[in-house]
Design goal:
Strand content: 25-35%
Structural class: alpha+beta
Distance between the termini: 41 Å
Oligomer: single chain
Strand order of the largest sheet: 1-2-3-4-5
Largest sheet: 5 strands, mixed
Number of helices: 6
Order of helices and strands: EHHHEEHEHEH
Shape: globular
Helix content: 25-40%
Radius of gyration: 16 Å
Amino acid sequence: MDTNQITFREAVIQDLDRIVFMLSDDVLGSKREQYQQPLPESYITAFQSIAADPNNELIVACSGEEIIGVQQITFTPFINHRGGWRATIEGVRTASKVRGKGVGSLLIQWAIERSKERGCHMVQLTTDKKRPEALKFYEKLGFKASHEGLKMQL
């Protein structure tokens, strides 16, 4: 795969089917996502909320017309760090046929550059503890496990 030919853009509603398919196309995603036709309304509602929020961007990576990756970036102002902004990267996924070929690295590098453009002083993300290879991947890109993250399912 020629990674020099990969482009990035904001997702449009017509991309949603492919995005949900990619999110569901791995061991953990298949347990928490619901890819079916038609897509559950919850995905459409979430997409519309993200698209309407100037501090959220759903970004797709494309090889030609084909979507081969996705990530969501949320920009958040904080009162600490002198009122600075942070970017949070979520929902990173590449198409199964391109995993291990550099697309994920390009997605994250693109998000870092976008975060700089938005004036963020920090980029943060989480990865499931059941994905040790993902932790190594992010550390290789310069991320550090500096905090202990906690979550509560509601």
